Amino acid sequence: MPLITGVMQDYLKAIYHLQQDRSSVSTSDVAKRLGVSPASATNMIKRLAERRLLAYTRYHGFVLTPAGQRIALETIRHHRLLELYLARHLGVSLDQVDKEADRLEHALSDEVEARIAATLGDPVRDPHGDPIPSKNGTVRAVRYPNLTELPPGEVGVVDHVSDRLPEVLQRLVSLGILPDVTVRVLARLPGDRLRVSVGGKERAVPRDLAEAVHVR
Length: 216
Description:
Shape: globular
Order of helices and strands: HHHEEHHHEHEEEHE
CATH architecture of the domain at 147-215: Roll
Helix content: 40-55%
Strand content: 15-25%
Strand order of the largest sheet: 6-5-4-3-7
CATH class of the domain at 147-215: Mainly Beta
Largest sheet: 5 strands, antiparallel
Oligomer: single chain
Low-confidence stretches: none
Distance between the termini: 41 Å
C-alpha cells in the first residue's frame, strides 16, 4: 500500500467517528469536523478512495473500507494510549491530553506503542472514558445515555466525557464530573439546567455540559 500520511490518518479517524451515528458520511461532514474547506476535503477523499481506503459513490457519501477502518482504529489506539500515558504518568491535564496526543500519534512506532500499553497495564479506556481499540482492531461498542436523559432521582456512573471541546471539558473537570464518578440527578432547573449531586456536593449543570457526559 502507498505511504499513508499523518493527514490521511486524520481523515480516516474523523470518518470513523462520523460513521458511528450515520450510515454514510458526506464531504461537508468531514470538512466541518476537521475545520478544512470543502475543496480540501474533496481532494483528500478522492485520494483515499484511490487507495481503496474509502468506498465512495458520487452523491451518496462514502464509508471506510476494511483497510481504511483498520488504519483508523490503529490511529485511534495510538491517540488514546498516548492520552492515558500523558495524563497518568506526565500529569497533563484532561483538557490538554487530546491536543498533545494529536501531535504525537502519527510518529508512534509499533514497538513504543507496545511498551506504552504494557506500562499502562493494557488499558481498555482512555482518561475520558472512551474505549481503546485492541491491537487486533476490535473496539467495545457500548452507547450510554447522556446526563440529560436521566430523570430526577436517578443515579449513574460517568462512563465517559466528550473531549470534542476543551472549554467544555475544563468546566466538567472544575465540577468534578469525570469518568467513574457517581452522579445523582436531583432536579431540573429553569434555563434548561440540571441540579446534580457529585461527591456530596450539589452542582447546577447547564445543558451543554450535561450532553457531554455519558453515564451507565
